[in-house]
Write a structure and sequence with these properties.
about 45% helix; mainly alpha; Eukaryotic RPB6 RNA polymerase subunit; about 60 residues; elongated
Amino acid sequence: MDYTKFEKATIIGARALQLAYGAPPLIKVPSSVSEPLELAKLEFDEDVIPIVVVRKVS
């Protein structure tokens, strides 16, 4: 699914917040990653974040 830049920002931000509050990572964490936002971006790129976007059809 193609996301708008706003949907992408919302998904990554929500996942980073979850990670910051102690949620377990969904991928193997590289040693170079130390920030929740960086990890959330990696998870988004690997398409493993379990967040669903619902759009209304007009």
